[in-house]
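FIELD: query
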Amino acid sequence: MVAGIAAFPIIVRPRGSHAGVGLAKIDDREAMACYLDQRQEEEFFIARFVDYSGDDGLFRKYRVVFVDGEPYACHMAIADRWDIWYLNAKMSESADKRLEEETFMRTFDVGFAHRHHAALAGVAGRIGLDYFTVDCAETRSGSLLIFEAGQYRRGSQYGFHPRSFLTSRRQMRKIFDAFVAMLERRVRRGREQAA
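FIELD: result
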């Protein structure tokens, strides 16, 4: 057993790392020893590996933006590998992938968000921030699998991916409008309280 994980495979990454730096899938104790021998870091996050591939063998990772507690589709990446980022999924090179991403965005409220309403509301309530993003997937059984959640950090891509603008400008506008409306409500509330 490795720090509370009863069985392999697991995923591991150095604490404080982002964008897949040091991220690995470990299948056994020997692979873990080899991984640790190659790393300089002393603290790591580990988690059970969940195979979230679809019936077609492809992996789909979703980014959901929460604005004032409401979820919005931000982008989707599709790849034949489990460690997906928008760039390594080569979304810009596949019309089929971009069409599926656009469909995800267009049907988000009646599809993904509807299926996972209780889980998404729970995430919003627990995190409690005015704005944050979640990277997640759906398992074959239909459960929501959350990879990570956090606020956008300057200098990182943990927010909007520029190429997702090519897929659905309308969806991006919806998110920006929701963000501006939230700020306007906060300003209005502040003025009312000061009066």
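FIELD: remark
The first helix runs from residue 29 to 38.
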